[in-house]
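Objective 1b of the project was to move from sequence-level analysis to a structural picture of ligand recognition. The entry below was assembled by the postdoctoral researcher (A.K.) and checked by the PI before modelling. It contains the amino acid sequence of the target and the SMILES of the bound compound, adenosine-5'-triphosphate.
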Amino acid sequence: MPTPPPAGNRLGAFFGVFRYSRRALVLVWQTSRPLTVGLAVCTLVAGILPAVAAWIGQLIVDSVVDAMALHRDTGEVEWWPVLRYVLAEAGVIAAIAMAQRGLSGQQSLLRALLGQKVNVMILEKAGTLSLAQFEDSEFYDKLTRARREASIRPLGLVNKTFSLMQNGISLVSFGVLLVQFSPWAILILLVGALPVFASEAKFSGDAFRLFRWRSPQTRMQMYLETVLAREDSIKEVKLFGLEPLLLSRYRTIFDALYGEDRRLTIRRETWGFLLGLLGTLAFYGAYAWVVVETVTGQLTLGEMTMYLMVFKQGQAALSASLTSISGMYEDNLYLSNLYEYLEQPVAAEQGTLTQGARPGDGIRFESVSFTYPGADKPALTRISLHVTPGGSLALVGANGSGKTTLIKLLTRLYEPSEGRILLDGSDLREWDVQTLRRRIGVIFQDFVRYQMKVGENLGAGDVASFEDEARWQQAARRGLAEEFISAMPGGYHTQLGRWFKGGQELSGGQWQKIALSRAYMRESADILVLDEPTAAMDAAAEAAVYDDFREHSREKMTILISHRFSTVRAADHILVIDGGEIIEQGNHETLLAANGRYARLFRLQAKGYR
Ligand SMILES: Nc1ncnc2c1ncn2[C@@H]1O[C@H](COP(=O)(O)OP(=O)(O)OP(=O)(O)O)[C@@H](O)[C@H]1O
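Corresponding predicted holo structure:
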């Protein structure tokens, strides 16, 4: 992880401001070469021309003085020698205005292009990441931060780098003019300005470190904002009266952060002022020197005018540079975060198999154990099972016993920590991941409610038929969603959810029917996994779902997770899991006969229905 320069190293701190400038520049260059070149040209022009304007200013005053002398001596007036300089000055000022317009125009075009490019880079990368990476809070934080400011930060850094260069060029060109007066004057100005540069670099560096360090608090604030202002949480927040509590947490975090900010800001501005005073003193010392030299006749009036302009604009360029430096640290912070995210290593997919060593062998778990990253206890221990085509397996167990985890391993969202999982005789790791996923149709408990059209919500189950209306209807029929979909105003083209205009919200059970239909879209799948697919459905719908399911999945391998024994009992094989281990297995009759956990739970549920 790139770390900010150590506080003691002033020079390092000063150059640290350029740490990501090169990378930002490369990014901008890749986004649009013509705009980058245009930006560089305008920066150069806007940097040099102020000095040229100051120099022409001198020529104007000197030629006016000469013309006045001529008029006094001869009574004649020569207009052209004077007015041509005025004309030239007007031309230069117009060119500066043009360069500045060019800068802002090109910047705004680049901002749009770059925002899009960076966002696409971020999202493309997201597609290559593993589920475990998404579940890592620090990593997730990086992703959110990277996305939040994608459109402004990279260009901001480039703009500020350019602006620093532009002001640097201006300062050098002013120096070229000043050196004719005295090299000492430049030295005085340089010595006067250095302390304030150094202090700005140091304090900006401190702010940089502070930002990084406080990231978890900022994240908590963002989370509270989401809970307090999102439609899916506001219902509960209101009913439980959580607003004051959450808001007070939000405020407490802010107060702590603000305290630190305040201390840093006060120190930064106080030192900035005191050291800036040195620079101002140096400037006005040199200014007085110029005035004295003019009075004693060493300098012409024109030269004095030029130097005065140079001093004024030099000051302005200096303070603009300081502003750029302090902003650049923040942009650096963003870019360091962006690149850390983009460079996150991704495990290469090595599997290439599209067919197993023993086709038709089905799914085998061989003594599979799994511990979630960062967890101290395994979620699954030595699980062995075998499901053949046409076979059905049901998983039963208390909450948190590891049922969903088993499915996540089967679908290769995670890899076993020990043991192996085989499909058709070959290890899942050897399978081409796309082929593998095409063979599996799955609905999880926490399926996604896409804020899209009804049909697209179904089509998502098989991207190849995403827009295929005939297939939508077929899947909806099997998932028992057809009836309520046809009653909707736009049928399959009705927008779902509340996020977009005209969107229709569905009931919990209706959403579940949509999810089930989505799983049925995957016609090529010969492994069907249903993780509590009917928990929100009414009893009639549930019975219909399972009748249909049994009817249509004769050739397939099915894995079913349910807390309802009425559905579990029909499975060929039932695994009872507790604390990640298989404690009983068999079919409904043998398990009842064994009179163990399964039998006890079954009787408990049956009693409830009596
Ligand atoms: N992403 C995760 N990271 C770390 N631990 C997890 C994660 N998901 C689940 N766990 C833990 O793993 C264990 C098994 O969880 P799992 O979701 O497999 O249970 P389950 O049997 O499906 O439960 P339920 O019946 O409530 O759906 C639990 O102790 C849970 O706390």
